[in-house]
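Researcher: We plan to redesign the surface later, but first we want a full-length starting point. Tokens attached.
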């Protein structure tokens, strides 16, 4: 028999009444009722209430024990009175009448309490993460994460995939984010890189003759932190398949996501065959390639309206003549909203760095007119045309923005979410997935004015590969796709380019010579030249999936030991200094000027 416990802290019920039991855990909370002291004892599994009388010799031990002291309690299981039952606990109908207590580990004064779910500064929470993780909500988030990963592994195996492990020490990638570099002791002056993703290795697995690969893969990128991105490492479900087209990848991922989200959430999934939206349409209708489809608001292009003679809104008309565009968001039946609602949105847009949002509401007395600061500049005929283009009705309101396309997409994508939140029209009881497809192969870099890859340089371009027009690269589309849920990008993926000759041509567009490609991607090019199957894949982010399922907006809430915004581990004091002996072994000299 285990000397610490006969039961865990969620197991005891009325079946054990009058039995002598041992339970061990943390002193979660105590309540002194004079002659009686009540103890809530907590372990990984749950909570049990224990009670001790003041004539028990162990009463003083518990009386002076601080919260989070680890205890072993021996006692008799007794039934609680009906008025003292706590049906929120599995053990809420019983309590343990304490006979003896053993202090297994004393706790110091806590820098932050574990009892309760109050908010504490992030610095404290990360420095004392082991305490933070004892809190019920955080503890449950990590249990959810473990169960999600276990479920994914089972489902991927059911779908015919095998899990393989790829190297952690590899070569630096010339594309993507900054690498984390690791100096080589045996090869002085040379460095490994931690993998940003197992991209090349998983393709090489397909070239090696394996058919369906997956891995819960750690990835390392030296990036700045965001709410949905860790600054150092993250995990993804890495998937690759041979002899597939884009639709085959979609079918696998859709089955997995539907089963996964149904398993761990009661929220609705409106479409189990996910909506497909072209990149072009997504940018036009939502201003982003990460649209939240729970939000019914659509962005409409109204640039042509401002070429009409009967529209007198001169500020926009002059901008349109110089190449600006006008796009708008229609809100349904907002005629009764107070002026402050519209003014607050205009003010908010200015706070985001935009010039604001013009607006009016469609009214009809004897004729159509616009109510609002700019309504007077629009004739009845122009309002009719706006209504036709936007499927608007009397009582609807229109918010306009005018400017360069990138600026308009940026402000209206966030304005769309802001307005929907203010109107409370986002259905928060669903997970709405979509695929963003048909990404351009290339784009023009705004700063350098040079052509660059827009997404993934190893992707297969669309169309007959013998008829691709390399003279018009910006018109090329690729078999590249993103999966998005509730406005959060879960992953990018692609059908890969498995033809070396085509890879040379595609890289030449962005300035790579054949020798450059062979040098930087020697392993990949060499492997492809010995016969490679058509293949493709994707890599949904584990962290973001769990974040959605847990209903959290910050990735640190579902990560065991995250870094802070400055990529520091406050608990383990990393990164840290290393001594000169270690640096000498690695042939490294520091060149840091002291301030």
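Model: Full-length starting sequence:
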């Amino acid at each position: 028999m285990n000397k610490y416990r006969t039961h865990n802290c969620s197991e005891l019920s009325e079946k054990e009444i009058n039995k002598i039991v041992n339970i061990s855990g943390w002193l979660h909370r105590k309540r002194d009722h004079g002659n009686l002291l009540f103890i809530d004892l907590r372990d990984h599994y749950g909570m049990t209430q224990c009670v001790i009388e003041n004539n028990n010799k162990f009463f003083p031990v518990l009386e002076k024990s601080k919260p989070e002291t680890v205890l072993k309690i021996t006692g008799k299981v007794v039934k609680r009175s009906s008025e003292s039952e706590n049906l929120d606990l599995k053990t809420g109908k019983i309590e343990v009448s304490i006979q003896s207590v053993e202090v297994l580990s004393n706790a110091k004064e806590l820098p932050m309490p574990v009892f309760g779910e109050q908010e504490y500064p992030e610095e404290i929470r990360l420095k004392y993460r082991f305490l933070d993780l004892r809190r019920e909500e955080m503890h449950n988030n990590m249990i959810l994460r473990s169960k999600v990963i276990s479920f994914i592994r089972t489902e991927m195996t059911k779908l015919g995939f095998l899990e393989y492990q790829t190297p952690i020490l590899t070569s630096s990638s010339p594309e993507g984010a900054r690498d984390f570099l690791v100096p080589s002791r045996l090869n002085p002056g040379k460095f490994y890189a931690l993998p940003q993703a197992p991209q090349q290795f998983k393709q090489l697995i397909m070239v090696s003759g394996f058919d369906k690969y997956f891995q819960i893969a750690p990835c390392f990128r030296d990036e700045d932190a965001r709410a949905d991105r860790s600054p150092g490492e993250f995990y993804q479900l890495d998937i690759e398949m041979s002899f597939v087209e884009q639709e085959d990848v979609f079918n696998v991922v859709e089955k997995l996501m539907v089963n996964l989200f149904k398993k761990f959430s009661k929220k609705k999934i409106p479409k189990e065959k996910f909506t497909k939206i072209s990149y072009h349409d997504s940018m036009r209708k939502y201003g982003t390639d990460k649209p939240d489809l729970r939000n019914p608001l659509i962005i409409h292009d109204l640039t042509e309206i401002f070429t009409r003679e009967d529209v007198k809104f001169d500020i926009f008309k002059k901008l349109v003549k110089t190449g600006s565009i006008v796009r708008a968001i229609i809100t349904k039946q907002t005629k009764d909203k107070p002026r402050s609602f519209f003014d607050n949105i205009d003010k908010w847009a200015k706070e985001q760095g935009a010039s604001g949002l013009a607006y009016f509401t469609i009214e009809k007395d004897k004729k159509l007119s616009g109510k609002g600061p700019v309504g007077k500049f629009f004739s009845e005929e122009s309002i009719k045309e706006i209504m036709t283009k936007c499927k608007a009705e009397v009582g609807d309101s229109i918010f306009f923005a005018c400017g360069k396309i990138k600026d308009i997409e940026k402000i209206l994508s966030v304005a769309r979410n802001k307005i929907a939140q203010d109107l409370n029209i986002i259905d928060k009881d669903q997970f709405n997935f979509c695929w963003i497809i048909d990404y351009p192969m290339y784009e023009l870099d705004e700063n350098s004015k040079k052509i660059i890859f827009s997404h993934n340089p190893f992707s297969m371009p669309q169309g007959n590969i013998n008829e691709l027009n390399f003279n018009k690269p910006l018109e090329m589309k690729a078999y590249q796709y993103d999966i998005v849920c509730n406005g959060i990008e879960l992953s990018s993926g692609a059908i890969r380019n498995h033809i070396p000759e085509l890879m040379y041509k595609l890289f030449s567009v962005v300035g790579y010579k054949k020798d450059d490609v062979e040098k930087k991607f020697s392993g990949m090019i060499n492997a492809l030249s010995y016969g490679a199957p058509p293949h493709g894949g994707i890599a949904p982010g584990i962290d973001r999936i769990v974040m959605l399922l847990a209903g959290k907006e910050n990735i640190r809430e579902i990560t065991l030991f995250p870094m802070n915004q400055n990529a520091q581990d406050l608990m383990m004091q990393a990164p840290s200094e290393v001594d000169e002996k270690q640096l000498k072994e690695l042939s490294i000299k520091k060149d840091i000027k002291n301030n």
